[in-house]
Amino acid sequence: MLYYLIFVVVFVAVMVLSARTGRGVASGTDFALSGRNASSADVAWIIIGTLVGGASTVGTVQMAYLYGFAAWHFTLGSGLACLVMALFFARALRESESVTVAEYIGQQFGPRFRTYSSIIASSGMLMQIVAQFLAATALLGAVFGFGHVAAITLSALLTLGMIVSGGIAGAGLVGKLKCFLLYLIMLLCAAIALYGAGGWGPLLTAARATGMDLSLFSYGSRAAAVDLGSMLVGVLSTQIYLQALFSAKSVRAARQGALLSAALTPPLGFLGIIVGLSLRVSAPELATDTARALPFFINRSFPPAVAAFFLAGLLLVVLGTGAGLALGVSTNLFNDLFARTTWIRRRWNSMLIMRACCLLIVLLTAVLAWLSLNTAILKWSYVAMGLRGTAVFAGLCLVVFFPKAPWVRTMKPILFALPVLYLLFIALR
Q1: How confident is residue 219, by pLDDT bands cut at 50, 70 and 90?
Q2: Domains of the chain (ranges plus CATH)?
Q3: Are 30 and 356 in contact (CB under 8 A)?
Q4: Please, what is the average pLDDT of the chain?
Q5: CA 169, 111, 415 angle in degrees (round to 5)?
Q6: Higher pLDDT, 202 or 360
Q7: What is the CA radius of gyration of the chain?
């Protein structure tokens, strides 16, 4: 009973804090950008709070169990993308005073491409929310023994509560808590895994003895390169991560926040790999349900009260990412579609529209998660990143690096074709 009580109390406490953070939100702009007053730390917490989630933790341990170091592509690619974001994109994005990346690109390529880019990018974000729901299902199943339908339903309700209550400010608060919790959890888990294996060298030797290829390209060089490339362009094309830059109080705050995110993200993936390798050696029975690898390790390695606290933190991590991505999608839909329709803008409150968008997004994602229960968590994330990248990245680079070049507009047909070509490539891969 104490195990369940601690789990519930920790999670509810964070939900209440998020709701209190969002009490001053009075408009759609405040909800989406927190008044453009975010410090560098706030920017980092928003990025980390939505970038580091189920794929970076539960999904990375799952993939490390299956493929070894190839599981690092998600967090390594995320860190590299944040570094590129800070060095080459932060100034242009913050000085644009835009709300969405599609709006920023649409200033060069026109309203039709703005709408098209926003819809494709939003579809990619929906796919990544599915990955968070799959991770949350594994966590809730490990803690409460919930079936898939009950776990997905509860995940949807909790995600909706987190995003509707706090907006971007709530996402920043959750991101700060997530960062501290994640490092605490993953450092302890990795330390226990290394101790149990007898050190780094014996762990690698034992993993190889199971027949595992430990290279970064263990599941195929081309597939791994595509996944890493998808991460690089996907992070630089995702509304909620760029929304953190739009919300910064200055260019300096935007750049420093992205740099902090670049430094903090990759080590978490490496810690997850250590845990995944140790489970590959010590728990071969997980091969039939690899999504539960990290919850299994925590329940096995810690006293019940500590395990409950850590699993509540992981659920917070997973659903916080889903909530942030849902905020990004709702911001896209409101600013790039609904706010441009005069009769909607005149008759409906912006906050009401954005929260209604969140509801529809979460419901749709829950259905997709239920239809995709047997797929790997990181696979959803890689495809989602790639799709967002084809819709946004090329256009974003053209606008940032060649803002006044007359030939840029002639690239618009190619930009329209890129998402279609990417989907064909994925279907044939």
Answers
A1: confident
A2: 29-428 (1.20.1730.10)
A3: no
A4: 81
A5: 95
A6: 202
A7: 21
What would the two tokens of residue 305 be? 């009260």
| Residues 70 and 219: beta-carbon distance below 8 Å | yes
User: What is this structure's pTM?
Assistant: 0.79
Looking at residue 280, its pLDDT comes to 93
pLDDT at 33: 46
Residue with tokens 């790639």: 386
pLDDT in tens, 292-307: 899 899 999 999 888 8
Residue whose tokens read 């959803």: 380
Nearest to 79 by CA among 276, 232, 272: 232
Query: Per the structure block, which two tokens stand in for 65?
Result: 């169990």
The full 3-state SS of 176-233, as one line of letters, equals HHHHHHHHHHHHHHHHHHHHHHCCHHHHHHHHHHCCCCCCCCCCCHHHHHHHHHHHHH
Q: In 3D, which of 320, 329, 327 has the Cα closest to residue 387?
A: 329
Can you tell me the distance from the alpha carbon of 152 to that of 365, in angstroms, rounded to the nearest whole number? 10
Give yes or no for a contact between 64 and 277, defined as CB atoms under 8 angstroms apart: yes
